[in-house]
Every structure is written in structure tokens, then in C-alpha cells.
Amino acid sequence: MDDYATIIGRVLDVRKATVGLTASLGAEDMVAQSMPDASPAKWHLAHTSWFFDRFVLQPLGLPPVRPEYDYLFNSYYDAVGPRHPRSSRGLLTRPTSDEVLAYRRAVDARLADLPGSASSAGSSRLSRAEVVAALELGLHHEQQHQELLLTDIKHLFSQNPLLPAYDASAAPDLAAYASTGAKASAWLSFDGGLREIGHGGSGFAFDNEGPRHKVYLAPFSIASRLVTSGDYQAFIADGGYRRPELWLSEGWAWVQAHAARAPLYWDVEKTAHQARAFTAFTLAGAREVPAHAPVMHVSYYEADAYARWANARLPTETEWEVAASKSNCLEQTFGHAWQWTQSAYAAYPGFRPLAGAFGEYNGKFMVSQMVLRGSSCVTPAGHARLTYRNFFPPSAQWQLSGLRLARDT
Amino acid sequence: MDDYATIIGRVLDVRKATVGLTASLGAEDMVAQSMPDASPAKWHLAHTSWFFDRFVLQPLGLPPVRPEYDYLFNSYYDAVGPRHPRSSRGLLTRPTSDEVLAYRRAVDARLADLPGSASSAGSSRLSRAEVVAALELGLHHEQQHQELLLTDIKHLFSQNPLLPAYDASAAPDLAAYASTGAKASAWLSFDGGLREIGHGGSGFAFDNEGPRHKVYLAPFSIASRLVTSGDYQAFIADGGYRRPELWLSEGWAWVQAHAARAPLYWDVEKTAHQARAFTAFTLAGAREVPAHAPVMHVSYYEADAYARWANARLPTETEWEVAASKSNCLEQTFGHAWQWTQSAYAAYPGFRPLAGAFGEYNGKFMVSQMVLRGSSCVTPAGHARLTYRNFFPPSAQWQLSGLRLARDT
Amino acid sequence: MDDYATIIGRVLDVRKATVGLTASLGAEDMVAQSMPDASPAKWHLAHTSWFFDRFVLQPLGLPPVRPEYDYLFNSYYDAVGPRHPRSSRGLLTRPTSDEVLAYRRAVDARLADLPGSASSAGSSRLSRAEVVAALELGLHHEQQHQELLLTDIKHLFSQNPLLPAYDASAAPDLAAYASTGAKASAWLSFDGGLREIGHGGSGFAFDNEGPRHKVYLAPFSIASRLVTSGDYQAFIADGGYRRPELWLSEGWAWVQAHAARAPLYWDVEKTAHQARAFTAFTLAGAREVPAHAPVMHVSYYEADAYARWANARLPTETEWEVAASKSNCLEQTFGHAWQWTQSAYAAYPGFRPLAGAFGEYNGKFMVSQMVLRGSSCVTPAGHARLTYRNFFPPSAQWQLSGLRLARDT
Amino acid sequence: MDDYATIIGRVLDVRKATVGLTASLGAEDMVAQSMPDASPAKWHLAHTSWFFDRFVLQPLGLPPVRPEYDYLFNSYYDAVGPRHPRSSRGLLTRPTSDEVLAYRRAVDARLADLPGSASSAGSSRLSRAEVVAALELGLHHEQQHQELLLTDIKHLFSQNPLLPAYDASAAPDLAAYASTGAKASAWLSFDGGLREIGHGGSGFAFDNEGPRHKVYLAPFSIASRLVTSGDYQAFIADGGYRRPELWLSEGWAWVQAHAARAPLYWDVEKTAHQARAFTAFTLAGAREVPAHAPVMHVSYYEADAYARWANARLPTETEWEVAASKSNCLEQTFGHAWQWTQSAYAAYPGFRPLAGAFGEYNGKFMVSQMVLRGSSCVTPAGHARLTYRNFFPPSAQWQLSGLRLARDT
């Protein structure tokens, strides 16, 4: 029973933290969806519970807690049936937040009962190891949604002319800036040669992190720190958003279509008058932020254009992982901002998706997206890894995405 | 003081009723916006209060109750400043419903104090008669929003796969059917000649209802009753939605673009098996409705196509008003369903919009819309009039819009 | 035979003139389509021929000249079968212009043979009177397309940075300005009372021009002349395109969506420096035009906003027809610019569409369009009438549409 | 002078061949643009000439042949100025095809004069080696447009209900099928290890083909032949287009949005009844094609889904190049169909774009596109190379794109 008890205890802790993230939200904040890419907070609460209901409890022979939720809260798993359209999630005023919280409690109660009940369930379609693996996946899945819940609520609040604060005191997305002084960035050089990257050992990892494999690497240098907001202000001041030669063709089209002038959430007017700071919308409302803080909320297009302007380039994910794996080398590897790489999200050599619906978790998104590495200041503790591969379309700005420079040596 | 006391008492009664309409709604139901044409219930509560704050209280010299609401809850009055985009109303999770209700109470309290305070306010830009007129307009404005609140919440709930009921017992949009038996429709004939229509007497009317004016009318016949759902089922069964010759060109394009097969909210699959009823989504949830009930939620295109199929036509608004003004003649004139006319919404001869921002109330919409006459079963008591001109674009289905046939004699 | 010979002679004359309009066009000019509302010149040549083939020759028992053209060159007649999508007309590089011209000649030859052959055709589904009526309709139809051919080629050429001239010497759309001096506009007053409008006598008219019917009219005044470009420059200079209070709500949205600043084809930059002229793209290329010339290429929204700015309004079509029917009264009634009225395009009392496919000619467009009266300087001679009802959506600018003011007396 | 004479001779030969490709086109075929991705044939003729004028002749001190063409026929080079919008190329009925051909001749004449004139031009901004390099690039550029001219005209003709043939006798896109018998596909195995790919030697290559660099490769197998149309029919028959589990998420959305059921140009209805053939639109019109012919005109999504269905995968571009470089190994490497790889189009390690405007040729497209290798049956002779990297967005179907399977060993 020990394996069950341990993983279930960890799952329930994580799930408690998810609910905790909504403590400052009113019922109305829970339901709204500010764009198709984002989901309502309530939907995150429900979907992460459905994940356990559908992929752990139901295969063990338990009836669905709420059968109608199989349709409402399936995100994208074609293998387990049809689903409510993503762009209409904000219209689900029912079930209410209270009903969703009750659903969470019901799922939690069944999970808590698992050590006792599962062994006796005759109709399970899962082995014990499979149950543990599904619980572990559900835990990491829920952690991913914790971060998404924050980035989505930030986007929602940013659309409100009142600019409400999610948490004015904790200010979770300002944590990235807390400890970062004015220390200059240095170029760290790495030899070329045959290296290994990817997840290969024990411990949890998503399927897309493996298999561990050899990669030949040319010599390269990588910046010790992330690009700061002050650095990025210099790019803007130098006409960065007006010079097509700095941009990918698709990026320049994006600049023009969106009349982009700065990272998402920057208050351009106010920032223009600040030498050592910029003003931005944060989870604590509109704030003045020191210029030495890492730049965040840039698209891949912006990251790439900045790097070109700086006579550098973005690192590949291999370079990033090799550099980051050398202890005491890179700063701001984790816990500040996700870092765009120049690597398109693709299968590693020998990649095999998980069996069944879990195979849809990562593999089916391997086109038209770019890999980000590291983690952000709102990534849950214990979630990120050296081999972790985050991925988003090149136009995405609403994640806490920044960049670190690299160059050929 | 009597004029003040009377009108303010009436205003406060109407405003109380508005809040009453939201009794069954949760906070989440209050914020969602299901399409750009519809508004959140909370927005209706706030906007109708802002109307009094901005057009009665502020001109009397009072400071805005909440200055930031001048931007958030202005609907379309360019004369009084910029406004939040209509299609983003559903993202306003703040102010919360509780804050909006507090705003309502603050406005109500100031309105209740008016008889005492207004006379002493030295800075009023309004005469006493103007204040009374603005209050009267605000009252009727609020009644319009009462009906819109219901049609908008109906549309929102219809988008939810759970098909929640707004009010399963009162079933307000089923009232249209309550008293209507199977009595057949008759053709009522009217002589031609010079007639007068439009508002000309005392009592409140919107500016677009006047001036009263002469119209020359050819002889015509008009149906004694509204087209029923059973009638409309026969049109569908006869291939109504598959025969382009029955439709206006723009209507046929609309049928194809929307794959339209029935009025909005009809459950086509279920209805196909019902001889004397149809199944539709209502404010009481999905319901079986008797076939003798008036058809509702048809667009102008559908109303027009039905009429052509029936070898008839829609009445002009002049014909409608002349027929409806003859006592004991038409049935179902008011209180069942709004009735599309073949008249485009336009200025009457000699029309002058009200002065100032109130001039934007009706006049600036006089293009690309069609007039509906009568009233529906959810129109507030006392709101409709013989001269009342409702108007919507020809594609609108989400109002309680039905039709009455006419023909040349 | 005389009736046949006469009408066929007239038809062939008109058809010859159509081909003449394309004399200055190269093959490439013939095929391009600059927007879905416009059609290629070649398509006009083919469609007008198809009209005779399909509605005169085929009903007389003749086989189609080119069976595949029944699909390609049907415009919108659902009654006679499916058709090529309107927005793809510009992709029909085949049949070539030469093939289309050969098609025209084949149709013309059959038409020329009609007097001899028709009487002997045993399989005709048309009476002789019906043939004559169809020929007459085809003639007027072809004249309509003559004007459309010019407005469509003008739009196409305006999209070319080289600004090519259709006809630099004849300059057909400048004819409107030729004879118009600086004579001031006067207000002409008309008594109210019962009047008759619409087509009622003999001679050809479209079905939508009848029946002749009584209308009661309030007293009104109407401007003796059209609004000039100089008048319109004053509207622009007074902030006309920046003041929402002058516009219909839908019109203001149109201004913002299109960043409208002037009538279509005006060169705003150049015009801003010209006191007594404006620079515009014309069928003779970019030209400086005197300010006393009528303003053209305005949408209904612009016409309506101008009238409001001028403390006036647009006339109704009844007012226009009553005023225009009084001899020696209005100037610039015909032959200068089409004149927007404030009347939505609708059926006259007692209107009956023609039988069969011809019933689709006018009746199915009676929604969401506004009536224009008079005629333009490129309307073919003999085509316009006092009762003629042209109609376009309120956003249309590419026709030679101007305006004449009216006001209540 | 020899280097000049040689390259100019080759350039003029290639340019002559370009004009030859339009021999069967009428003037109208030359101007139409069937979608924003495609360009008119005339535009290809003009743009390839502009390339020499702008990048060879003007830098040598010669005035532009036609200054206004710098705007009209610049494709995407921001460094040399603004340009006509891509999606409006089909509206350029002027300059006419004849004028464009005259432009070509003028450019050719200046090129032919280069050996004599260039040395004496005092104002050249280019060294002799740079001129030769620019001529060489212009030659390969022109060859690329030769293939695009054919794929674009094929797309245009496919939109015409008459399905015209570009060349019924030569049938250039059927050449792929000519020599291919029913020989079965075999799996060819390759050891893993450190390999080198990319252009490194002498001879022309595009900048994106280098630098030559080491890649570590796991063992893999690759199919000896391309996937045939018959293979692909089996995929369709097995529900390939109805099974989401076979598709990338973005691919499945594409299937639904486009109601995709088969490769572009397939006549699904006819093909469904053919066991050993399929019917498709080709440059020779609609043709029945043997099932052993390579499948073509599939998007990356389709290629990827097919591979998943076949329990295989697409090769990486490294695998493709390593396999193709081993002589007598792969069949159908060149001259049949471009082959989608699973590699996103990205910079090779150490990649440096060419200096100046030529740097925009390839580098700025390195996002959101996938690499295709090999060449098609309409690729000009001598154009393809082992290291050649073609690239298109994953949704592109109008190129002659097929696939070859790979798998892990």
C-alpha cells in the first residue's frame, strides 16, 4: 500500500494548492474566458479533477462522479470521446464554482479511498503500476494547470479597464525580480562534441522528454543571465519594432497585424518616461518594475528579433540543456522566466508516445510550436526539470516567457 | 413636488423589478456574454443605473456615484464620452455583481432624495420638466433592458450543454402559449384611404414614434392571429429551408451560412417526431410546446419566407397600426410575440431626434433594421403601445419575434 | 414580324454598344475581379449574352449555344440552376475573351434570325408577346451591365498603382462636370397632399417600379442641384469624418473600420491643397476636377452624414419622384450622379414580381438596401426613367452615387 | 571575361526556358491569382527579371529599366524598399504580358551586354565576384520560379469548372509516373553514428544549405521508394480522414476546417470506383493515373498521418540526406515528388545569412515551416541537390509534395 499512500498523499497536497490559488477570486472571476487560448479558472479546477476521474477512477471500475462532465471538461483527448468546444468554455456559468468545488471534493474523497478500495475492485482495467503512473501524471498535469490558471487570470484581468489585482501583497509574478540585482551578463563558453540530453533515469518525466539520446554539438557560448527589461527597453528605443530587418518574415507580419510596440502587459506610455524601470500589468495590478528584472511576456518573434538586434541568437534546446546541466554555471535557470529556444517542438529520436489516451498528452502537438526551457516564477515548486520541454506557438505572449542569448563561439 | 414624487416612485418600482429578474441567477450567470449582440445580466443592471446617474443625477450637479463607471457602462452615447467595447462586456468580472447592486442602491437612494435635494441644487443644468422627462425616459429604458436581460440570459443558457432553466416554474416565455387555444386564424379586411399613425397625444412615447402623420393606405387584409408553431412546422415539412425561391437573396445566403433548419432554440430532431407539439429550449429549460402556440425566435428572413410560402406577405407597420387600433379586432396584438413587419426602420415625416445625447437613443439606428410591432410575453406590463416601434436587424433571432400575415385585398 | 424586327434591332444595337465599351481593354483587363461586388468585364459580356440564350433562345426550343456556360454565367437565378460562385469570377481565364466574343456573335446571329425562325419553332414554351417582353428585359438588363462594366473596371484600375486610364480622351465619368457651372443651389418647395408615384403607363419598366400608387406627402423642400465636391470639401474640413454625432451608428462603425476620410477615389493628400478643385481617380486616370462638380462615389452613410451636417436630410424616393416629375424644376436630375434617397428598397403596395425566373430580377433583393434615383453620366442613353429605382447596400461607394438635399418645410 | 560569359550564357538559357513555360498560356491566364500563396504567371516573369535588374544591373550603375517596377515586382525584400501587397498581384492587369515580355527582353539585353559594359562602369557597387554570385543566385532563383509558375497555374486551372489543360501532350506533372513500375518498397537500414550533412564544397548552394556540419544519428531505416497513390488509397479506405488518433492536433483541425478527404486535386468520387488508379486534375487536365504513381499534393499533416497509420514516421532531413548520399541506394530521390521530412525548417549550426538584401532570401522564413527534400518531376534539370532544402508551411498542398517513410531500427 505504501506506493499508493505516498502518491495519493502528494496528489492531494497538489490539489489542495490548486484550490488555494483561487482564494482571491470571486465567482465571476472564475467563469470568464478572455481568449480562446486561455481557460476560465473554474474550468481548470474542473478539468484537473476530471483527469483523475476519467483516467484513474473510471478505469478502476468506479462510475463517473458526474457523467455529464465527461463532455464538459475533456480538454483534447479524442480517445475518450467528444468535448465542449474550447472557445466556448467561458459560457459555462453552470456548473457553478461551488458545484465544481464539490466535484473536486468528491474526486478527492475517492482518491483518498483508493488504497483501501482499489485492491478490491474486480473490474479494474489498470494494473497497480498503471494506477500509480496515472496518478503521477495527474499530479504533474495539475501542476501545469496551476501555472496556466495564473497566466489565464492575469490575461483576463489585463482586459479589464479597472486593472484588478489578483494578489496585491504576494504579487507572485514579481517574484522573478525579487532577488535579481544589477549583476552583468557574462558569456559562458562550451566546447563542442557529442553530448547526451533528454530524460533517461528514474523519476517522473513527460514522454516528450525522452528518450535520452546523443547529440553532436558545435562549440557555443550562452549568456549567464536572462535578458533584462532594461536591455529590452534599449531594443525598443533603437527602433526594434520599426525595423523589418530584425524580424522573421512571419514575425514582422505579426508586429504589423498587432501594432506591437512592446511586450504584452507593458504600459508603453508610462515606460517611455522611466530610465530604470518599466510599468506593467502584473498579478498585483499595475506596477513599476526595476529595469534589471528579466523581460517577460515576449513572443518567440520578439525574442528572436531581440537576439538578432543583439548580434546573438537564441540557444537550441540542446545547448540550453547542456549548459544548464553544468552545475553552478547558468543563473536564472529556473524560477524566473521560461526561455524561448530556437528549437521547434519535435520528437526526440526514438520517441514513443504513451499508450492510449495519454499518448495524446504531448505527441500530437509536435508541429508549429517552439520549445521553452527552464521555468518561471509561478511554476509550482518541484515541477520543472533540466529536461523539461515546454512548448507554445511562436505568437504566444501570455505565458511568462523571456529569453537568454547564445552565440557561436 | 408631486410630479417628482410620482415619477420617482414609478422609477423605483421598475428598478426593483429589474433586480427581481436576477433572483434565480448565480454570480457566474451574471457576467457571461454569449455573443456580441447580447449583454451580461450584470451589465444590464449597471447600465440602467448609469443611465440615471449620467443623465439625471450628474446634470443636477451631483458627482458621479462611481466615476469609472462612466466608461464601463456607457452603451453607445458618443455625446457623453468613450466606452468599453460592446463585445468585451463579458470580461468585466469586476465590478462584481455585489458591487453593481451596491451601485444600484446608491443611485436609487439619490433618486429617492431628489424631491428634497433637487430644488436646492444650484448647479443643475436641467429644468424641472427636463428632469421629469429624463426620469420618464430612464424608466422606459429600464423596461427595455428588462426584456433584453431575459432574451440575453436565454441565449446564454441555450449555449450550455446542461440546458439550465432560468425559472422552471414561472416559465416566463411560455406565457405566450397559456391562453391560446386552437382557434383558427381569419382574414380581417380593411378599406384603403388616408389614415393617421404615430404618437401624437400626451403620455410618454419614444421620439421615433412621432410625429403623428397621415399615410395613404391601399385596401388590405391582415390575419386575426399570429402564425403558430404548427403552421411553421408545415412550412418546414414542405421543404421551406431547402427552397431558394421562397427566400430573399440575403435570407437564402443566411440559411446556407448558418445551416438554418428551424427557428432558434427548436430541437429539430425531437420536433420531427411530434405532430401536435415542438420541443424547444425555453426559460424553463427544454420543453414540449403545443403546436397552436405562436412561432417565436424567427429572423426577418424566416418570417418573410414563411409569408411567401403561405401566399401572403408581412404587413407594413402602417397596416399593423391601423388594424391594431381598431378595437376588438386583432387577437394576440400584445403580450405574445413581437411581430416582424415589412417596414424598414426609418424616420417618420417630420421626425426630430431628442436634443443632446438622448437624440442618440433611436435616431442613429435608422438603417439596415426592420420594424417589429406589438410586444412579447416578456415585455414588462405597461411598456408597449399601439405606436411602439421595436427594431432589429433582419438576421436577429434571439428576440421573441414572430409574425402575423397580411395580404392585398 | 414588325414587333420582332424592331425589338431585335434595338437589342442588337445595344449589344454592339456593350462590346464597344471594351475597345480600350486588353485581354488581361477583361478577366480580373477587384472585389466580390464587382465582376470582370468579360463576365459582363458573357452574362448578358447568356441572358438572351437562356431566357429567349432556349425557351424557343434552340439548344444552348454553349451548354457549360449555363453554369458559368448564371448570375443569381436559382430557378434555372446552380452557378459559379460570384467571388470566383476573376478566376475564369477560360473561356477567353475571344471565345466570349464568339459566344456573343453566335447569340447575336440567332437573335437576328429570330423573326424568320421563331414562328416555325414548334417547341417554343413562350408566346410571341413573351418573347418580345423577354427581349425588352434583356435589352434593359444589358444596359444596366454597361454601367456596371464601367464602374467595375474603374474600381479595378483604381487598385493598380499605375492608375491606368480606361479612356483618357473621352473621360466618360467626367461628363457629369462638363456643363455644370457655379450656379448656386436653391430650395424648391412642394406642397403636401396625395400624390401618385410609380410606373403605370405603357412603355417598359422594371417590375419594381410599379404599380403606380397613391402616397400622402407632407410639404417639403428639395435642392435644385446636387451637392458639389466643393460643398463636400467643407464637410471634410469641418471634421465631418471625425464627429460621430453626424453619423448613423452603423455608418460611424463603417468610418472607423475603413478609416474613411473622403469619398472613394479621392486623393486626399492632393485635394487638401486645392481650394477650387479636388483630385480623384477617374476613368481618364487621376484628374483634377472643379469643385462645382457633383460629389460622387459616396456611400449612403456619407450622404446621410453630409445631410445631417448641412441641417438637412436626404429626400424620400417619393419626394424625389414628385419633384422630378414637375417639368423644368430640378436640375441635374439625370445624367450626372445617382442620388441616394432615405428610402429603403421595398415593394410598392400591390407589387407582384414577374412570373418565373424573371421574378428573381428585382424582388429578392428587397432588404438591407437603399434606393437611388436619377441616373449618372455613364448610364446609357434612354435607360433611366422618372420611376427608375436603383438600389445598393448603404456601404456601396463604387457606383457613381451622389446626393441631393431635402428638408421639411 | 570568361567567367562572365559563362554565367550570363547560362542565365540567358534559363530565362529563355522560363518564357517557354508560358507558351500555352493566353494573356488572361497570365494575370489571374487563385490564392494569396500563388502568383500570376506574368508576375513570375516580371519578378525574376526585376531580380536581375535590382540586384545586378542597378548596383552596376545602370538606371532601372522601369523604375515603377521596383515597387510592383519586389516580392519580399524589405532592404530595397516597399512593395505591392502579395494578395493583390492578380489585380495587376497592367503592365500587360506584352509589356512584361518587353521588360524581360530589355533586362536580357543588358545582361548580354554585361561582359563588355560592366568593366567600364565606374559606379559599380559590386565587385566582379559579387556580380557573378548575384547572377548565379538569380539563375537558381529563376529556376525556383519556373516550378512555382507551374504549380500556381495548376492551382488556377483547377479552380476553373472547365478544367483546362496547361499542356495536354507533354503533361509535365505526369512525368513522375512514367517510369515507375509496380516494384515494391523495401526498408533500407542505416547504422547510427556521427555523420556530416549540408553543403560544404564548391559549386552553388543556397545559404541555408550550409555550413556543412556533424550530426549524430541513431540507426534508422528508410523506404526505398515513395509512398504510392495506391498505398494512400488504402489509408483513405481505412478511414484515414475520419480517425483523429492518426493526426497531429493541428492537422485534425485542418481536416475538419477544410473537410479534407483526399490529396488536393483528387477527384474523390471517381477515384472511389477505381482499384488500380485514381483520377486527378493534372497539368494535362483531368487524368486517370496508375495507382503505383507516387502520391502528390499532400500537406505535411497528411504525410504525417499516413506515416502514423503505416506504423512508421517521416524521416528527418538528416536521415534523408545521409540515405540519399549513399549511391544506388534510394530510388525516386529526385525528379518525382518533393518529400516531406519531420524536420522544421531551421538554421544549421553556424548558419550566416548572405549579406544585404540577399540575406532575406532564406533566413527570415525559419519558423513555422517544414523541410522537403529531393525534387519533383517539374523541378528544372540541374536545380536540385543532395543538400537542397525546400520548405513550406505544414498546410501547403499545392506543391508536388509526397512522402517517403522511415522508422527506427
How would you characterize this protein structure?
- The structure is a homotetramer of 409-residue chains.
- With 409 residues, chain A is an alpha+beta fold.
- Chain A folds into 2 domains: 3-162, Four Helix Bundle (Hemerythrin (Met), subunit A), CATH 1.20.120; 175-408, Alpha-Beta Complex (paralog of FGE (formylglycine-generating enzyme)).
- The first copy, chain A, contains 12 helices and 11 strands.
- Chain A has helices at residues 2-20, 27-31, 41-57, 69-72, 97-117, 128-158, 175-178, 229-237, 249-258, 268-271, 300-309, 317-324; strands spanning 187-190, 193-197, 213-217, 220-223, 277-282, 285-290, 338-344, 370-373, 390-392, 401-402, 406-408.
- A 4-stranded mixed β-sheet of chain A has the order 9-8-7-10. In chain A, strands 1-4-11 form a 3-stranded antiparallel β-sheet, with helices on one face.
- In chain A, a hairpin with a 2-residue loop joins strand 5 and strand 6 (285-290).
- In chain A, helix 3 runs antiparallel to helix 6.
- Chain A is globular.
- Chain A starts with a helix and ends with a strand.
